[in-house]
Specification:
The strands form two sheets. The chain has an eight-stranded parallel β-barrel with strand order 1-4-5-6-7-8-9-10, surrounded by eight helices. The chain has a two-stranded antiparallel sheet with strand order 2-3. It is α/β, with parallel strands linked by helices. It has a single domain, classed as Alpha-Beta Barrel (TIM Barrel), CATH 3.20.20. Helix 4 links the parallel strand 4 and strand 5. The radius of gyration is 17 Å and the shape is globular. The chain contains eleven helices and ten strands. Pfam families: IGPS.
Amino acid sequence: MDGQRGRRVLDTILASKRAEIAALLVAPPPRVIRAPAGGVFKALRRPEGGALRLLAEVKLRSPSAGALSSVLRPAERARRYAEAGATMISVLIDGPFFGGSYDDLAACRDALDVAFGAARPKLLCKEFILDPIQLAMAAAHGADAALLIARITSAEDLARLADAARDLGIEPFVEVTTEEELAAAEHARARVLGVNARDLDTLVMDPARAERVLARVDPTAARVHLSGLASPSDVARIAQGPADAALVGEALMRQDDPGPLLAAMVTRAAAG
């Protein structure tokens, strides 16, 4: 595999984001009509002796995997994730590269509010966020948390974005891949930290590196393992480590009905 393929893809995505941001900045400001619920940190923290929390992802396609299952609309998929025991649902809202939209996020929020009310899973807006206007859009469309990727911002910008998220009432969910990025996340006072097992430059999975970085995360934070989990046994392995939670994406998105696989993963998350 081309060792810089991921970097080129990421650069292309970021160029697209800058164009989107320019358009958002001249549009009328978004109006928040679905207030964030709060409580993201508490929901993702694993109690002593408790089960690993699971995050399930809505992602129609990706540059690395191509097209994934489109049998279920995002809102129906989110509802099935919730029924199977997901603590949080991550919604990819990028359109050009991942097939998502802010409307998908809003539809998931509305469906979960109707079906589960205050007991619904938390919602994570997963986007390549470079500007506070994107956080305002996330809040307006029902997010409880927003992904901030340390790799794509300076430490100073990461801290500013985290503050902007908190000002909007949404939890900054900071993704890191290295110990240097972890230091930037800590500088940003992030309480929810995700460690990505996939290297964004090469797109190669490196579980050993992810486990090493995860072990360095402050144990008072909510520690989330990101990427690379495909089976209940994978979830059981992560449950034996320091993580409070783990995200499952493509394995679920390859299922036309993701409920049975996620339910099996939830069972193993509890059993370890």
